[in-house]
Amino acid sequence: MEAFRATISLIDVLFDGLSIGAVLLIVALGLAIVFGLMGVINLAHGELMMFGAYTTYVVQNVFNSLGDGISGFYIWAALPLAFIVAALVGLVLERGVIRFLYGRPLETLLATWGVSLILRQFVRSANWAMVLAIAAFCLLFLGGRWLLNRTRRQPPPIATLLLLVLSAGIGLALGALFNRQSVLSKLWFGPRNVDVTAPSWLQGSWSPASLFSEEFRTTNEWAQTLGLLDFPTARLFIVGLTIVCIVGVYWFLQGSAWGLRIRSVTQNRNMSACLGIPTERVDALTFALGSGLAGIAGFAVTLLGSVGPNLGGNYIVDAFMVVVVGGVGKLVGSIVAALLIGIVSYLVGSGTLGLLLPSTEIFQPALEIVNFFATSSMAKVLVFALIIAFLQIKPAGLFPQKGRSVEA
Known about the structure:
The chain is mainly alpha-helical and 408 residues long. The chain folds into 2 domains: 2-126 and 187-400, ABC transporter involved in vitamin B12 uptake, BtuC (Orthogonal Bundle), CATH 1.10.3470; 127-186. The protein contains 19 helices and 2 strands. The chain has helices at 2-38, 45-65, 74-96, 105-125, 128-151, 157-178, 182-185, 214-219, 221-226, 233-255, 257-267, 269-274, 279-302, 316-326, 331-349, 352-356, 364-372, 376-393, 404-407, and strands at 205-206, 231-232. It has a two-stranded antiparallel ribbon. α10 crosses α11 (257-267).
C-alpha cells in the first residue's frame, strides 16, 4: 500500500510537470514552424502570445457585460479570436518587416527584438487617442505612397522621406489633441497585470476515484488512496488543447495542399518557385500560422493566472530551448523536448526530485545539488546547464534534420 501511495504521489507530480510542458509545447509549436521551417528568429513571438492573452481578456469582459447566463461561454469565442488576432498581427509583421530580411538572421533577430519592445509599450499605453493617431499616420503615409506611385513609376527617395515626416507630424499632433479628451486618453490595459477568470466548469478538479461508486470509495482502501490523485480541470483542458493543436498542425503540414507547398518551399525555394508555387504567399501563410498558434498559447496561459505586458518574455527563451533541443523543424522533437523540459523544471523547482532520491551517503552529493536548485529561478539555471551539456553531444538536437535541406 505504501508503494501504491508513493506511485500516486509521483503520478500527481508528473502530471503537474506534464501540464507545464503542455503550455510550453503550445508556445513552441508556432515557433517551431516559424524558426524551424522558415529559419526566422522571431523574438516577438512572445508578444504575439501576449496578444492572444489580451484578446481572451477582452472577450471575457464583453461576455460578462452581456449577463451571467452566457458569461461562461466566452472561452469558445476567445479561442478562435485569439488565433485570428495573433495571426493578423503576425501577418502584418511578416509583410511589413520580415519579408525584407529573409536569409539575414542577425538583422531579423534585431528587428523582431525591436518590434517586441514596441508591442510591449503599445499594450502598456494603448488608448483610443493613440490608436486614432496611428490610424491617421497610416492613412496619410500609405495613401500618399499610393498617390505617388500612381503619378510616377518610381518616386524619388526625398519625396517618400518628406511624406513620412509630414504624416508622422500630423499623427503626433492629432495624438496630442486627442489625449486632451478624458474619454480618449483612458488606458485600455495599463502596465499592471489583468485577471482572466476561467469558467466555473474549469475551476474544479477531477479524480480517477470518481469513476467508482461512493460506497466503494468509502469502503475500499485502494479507492481511498486513488482519491489522493487530483487533476485540476483547467490543466486537463490545456493538455487536451495541446493534443488538438498537435494533430491539427500535423494534418495541415502533411495532409493539405498548402502544407505540401510549405514543405516544398522549405526544402527548395528556387525549385518551388520554378514549379509555380507562390513562395511569398506561402511565407505569409506560414508566419500567420505560427503566430496564430502563439495566440492560442496566450489563451491557454490565461487559464493559469493573470496576464501582463511582460507575459511573452517569460516563455520565449524556454520555447527556443524546446525547438533547439528537439531538432529544428521537427514536430516530434518539439513534443518530446517540451515534455522533458517541463517535467524536469517542475521536478527540480518544486523540490520533488530531492524527495525521490534516496538519502544515503552515495546519493548525498547529488541530493545537495538538487536541493540547491530547488527554486523556480534556479531550476531554470540547472535546465540551461543540462541543455548546454546535451548540445555538446548532439548539437543538432534529439531528432536532427536529414536530406537535401540540411546539405543546402
